[in-house]
Amino acid sequence: xxxxxxxxxxLPIGRNERSGGYRRYSWTEADMACxxxxxxxxxxxxxxxxxxxxGNLWAWWGRPGSEQAVVTGSHLDSVPDGGAFDGxxxxxxxxxxxxxxxALDFQPARPIAVVAFAEEEGARFGxxxxxxxxxxxxxxxxTARELRDGDGVSLADAMTAAGRNAALAGPDDELVGQxxxxxxxxxxxxxxxDGLSAPVGIGAGIWPHGRWRLDFTGRADHAxxxxxxxxxxxxxxxxxxxxxxxxxxxxxxxxATFGKVVAEPGAANAICSAVHAWLDARAADEATLDRxxxxxxxxxxxxxxxxxxxxxxxxxxxxxxxxxxPVLRDRMAGVLSAEGxxxxxxxxxxxxxxxxxxxxxxxxxxxxxxxxxxxxxPAEHAELADCETGVAALTAVxxxxxxx
Amino acid sequence: xxxxxxxxxxLPIGRNERSGGYRRYSWTEADMACxxxxxxxxxxxxxxxxxxxxGNLWAWWGRPGSEQAVVTGSHLDSVPDGGAFDGxxxxxxxxxxxxxxxALDFQPARPIAVVAFAEEEGARFGxxxxxxxxxxxxxxxxTARELRDGDGVSLADAMTAAGRNAALAGPDDELVGQxxxxxxxxxxxxxxxDGLSAPVGIGAGIWPHGRWRLDFTGRADHAxxxxxxxxxxxxxxxxxxxxxxxxxxxxxxxxATFGKVVAEPGAANAICSAVHAWLDARAADEATLDRxxxxxxxxxxxxxxxxxxxxxxxxxxxxxxxxxxPVLRDRMAGVLSAEGxxxxxxxxxxxxxxxxxxxxxxxxxxxxxxxxxxxxxPAEHAELADCETGVAALTAVxxxxxxx
Lengths: 404, 404
What we know:
The structure is a homodimer. The two termini of chain A are about 25 Å apart. In chain A, the strands form two sheets. In chain A, strands 1, 2, 3, 4, 5, 6, 11, 12 and 13 form a nine-stranded mixed beta sheet that branches. A four-stranded antiparallel beta sheet of chain A has the order 8-9-7-10, with helices on one face. Chain A folds into two domains: about 5-205 and about 320-400, Zn peptidases (Aminopeptidase, 3-Layer(aba) Sandwich), CATH 3.40.630.10; about 210-320, 2-Layer Sandwich (Alpha-Beta Plaits). By secondary structure, chain A is of the alpha/beta class. In chain A, a hairpin with a 5-residue loop joins strand 1 (about 50) and strand 2 (about 55-60). The radius of gyration of chain A is 22 Å and the shape is globular. Chain A is built from 13 helices and 13 strands. At the A-B interface, helix 9, strand 8 and strand 9 of A face helix 9, strand 8 and strand 9 of B.
């Protein structure tokens, strides 16, 4: 089994034929098929699969707890119509690295585990890195169990329907205590490596970021009879806010995005009584992020005032700035330099399970070049040669971390 | 049976407990319950209920075709979370007027019919006045059968599931030929009558209006890693267009509304690859409407250009200007003036089945005062006394039109 073999067996699962993108939402049929693929792949490599209390999948080489384990992996769930690489590349590369170590007859001095964290994208239940947050105690399990998807199904119900006992979800200190180091390989979601002509980079840290929900409340009226002056149109207040957010992000050299919006009542001939919009905001440091979100909130309040609309803004999730473990980072850089390449060190605006785990265990990341920078899109792509370079880098890192 | 009795039996059907608004979409369970109410009410008034080939409901007093009939009614379907009055007030008032004529032992010289047209709001299949358009041949039946709701269900399938033969849908010249006059009573969807201190008005005509679909196509990218300069964010192009539409409407003394918007992929952490938005535009005359939509289209093209996004605009429906039959209008005004009030003559920006029928038969409208002007909202309201004045006006008009 090599990278391509493992990759191609996962590729058809959860792909939408029309868009060419993936719809692998946690605890759905597509997710269950990804999980079955994980167990089959683990089994064929002689690894023992375990699903932890929070729905994260583990494939163990060696006995957990005998020594602190070297863990590598990523996630299998996707955003709506996401690409093939975001998440799966890390899991497939982890299995391919284990296959390579097996072929080299490597004898690990401590356990190695491949992990696939649940609901990393937050596409179904709205909270990113939900599996790793639950495991590390970064989210209250009672709150998490009551998170609901777009159809009103709770996480607890979705887990129960998938045969899991949601009552057990929550901090798993025993499991966290068994982890000596976590290395997550991920496709880059920008073009920095491409600009540096480097196939692989090492993660420096993660920008602080969060998600805010803005609720604009106007008044539903007939679109054909209500004078402009009598309107309280929530859509117009939202539209002005979306444009202001872009300007504020440019001024703060940061990022602000409205990617999800729900209009009520949602009829073409009714003025919106409400618009719910989700702001994704990220910046190089927390002070800048505060300034950015403050400006957008103020712009939203002003726009709401102009249109006779009420506005509320609430933070739905927040991830503080992460600096990856400098010892692990330097050790990975040393290994890869010895292999012949000096990998660049990259910050990223994207959240990752490794960023969540970094609060509890030494964690690091490897990035694989993305020639277009496109991500969260069916057009997301990495060249096979770069993926193979990534597997070789990960193999060398695992051999070093798990070696004698 | 009086107005209140008939009204209160309809009131609970299809009401959403949370919003207090109505979700009576055609051919759904709520609609079927409304239809059952129609048949029960008709039966208790000694009227014979018939469902025509296009799903419009008729309750006949007298034999259709014996003489040209006097028809009155409106529709029972609603916009999402619509109010209780828009549509139902006309049907309930029609039954109440028939009850009044029965109580007066009125002997009609020609048939009287109460009608409830199907899918007037277009809330399920996207085309307003679908039932009356099909009946009068204003829409191709093959096209109509293939209209789909948000879940991809076609009109044909929805009708079949409700026990109707969708293959028979289409122009019904025999039925249209049996109509001598149509009078639709409707709640006003503005505040003109309130300003004139008049409980009831007569429709002058309907502004030309239509619905346009704007498709903005950008590129899905990761919200946390894609530089502002690299983005092709469809949401920003839409937002700029929504604001421009408001400005253009003000300049043209007309109306433009975006009440429905769908963002793709629709994840909070993905830049929008596409935004589909529906423009509702109305103006006093067709030249002004053309100018308004032209300006909005041009603004959308410019916004799309600024954000590296493609834009397409397509007309989904159009209703030309309607002037109600002047003979019928004058006759109604004469009857009501003889009753003691001189009703004002009102133009309206809202489409109605009476506007569709006006192309084929003498048609007119009565409006009942709406003290707040609010419509297409759970807050829509008319005072009981005004509703009763409306019933009295309709009773007098029917007695005149159907009398000897």
